[in-house]
Amino acid sequence: MKQPTLGNPQNTIEILQKYSFSFQKKFGQNFLIDTHVLDKIIASANITKDDMVLEIGPGIGTMTQYLACAAGKVVAVEIDKALIPILEDTLSAYDNVTVINEDVLKVDINQLAKEYNGGKPIKVVANLPYYITTPIIMGLYESHVPIESITVMVQKEVADRMQTGPGSKDYGALSLAVQYYAEPYIVANVPPNCFMPRPNVGSAVIRLISHKKPPVQVKDEQLMFKIIRASFNQRRKTLANGLNNSPEIQLPKEVIIGAIESLGKGASIRGEALTLEEFAKLSNTISEML
Fold it and tell me: Looking at domain 9-210, what is its CATH homologous superfamily?
């Protein structure tokens, strides 16, 4: 299997010119042109020949070539059909890659894991378009796809949000959801000049290692996430008002206040002050009242 040829600006430009490719703003395309960053992603994703890797948004196949050298099998899902002939060219030397021209949000990833990995946990690696990072990551977790880890390039601010705790301005529904499903840590910060075209913001590689079992015991996962969303939808409001205003939680206000006070908190507390454990307790208390 030949060594990766993409990953530096010259080769990327050559391929783009060969196919007269033009970047699509709607797909949020920013291709990586830094081999050090690519090496770091592959190393931190901890990929071996026993692994099946799902790559989301392979672009022209830059990272796909690196993944193909490290993994047993790579399934790359690309939404832009203009990139498919380029991928056929850049990946022609790698016989362990399957490219699917589809929107990843519409793909049955459980089915892919069954088909290509016998239903065993897969690893996800991606340089994600910023506008769709959260729906993709939450979609993977909420559909309970068997995932060992997710290693992704995201906007720096989003990476910070995923790993922060209570009391920070970045803390919110995404922090809690990610930490419920996985252990997040930032692998590397990546400046705009590592991409073509250059994005306007800094990026970061974050690795999410799935928990074997969730860190909190919750009777109704969906209810807990409804409570979390309601408490951050209106950040300036108290937790009691946020829950009271939510169409998803049909309870009298005094019942909501009673549930919050059962945590040993005052009724004027805000959602951003609660830990994941406290949200789980609150959810369990409220589920008994519904």
Answer: Vaccinia Virus protein VP39 (3.40.50.150)
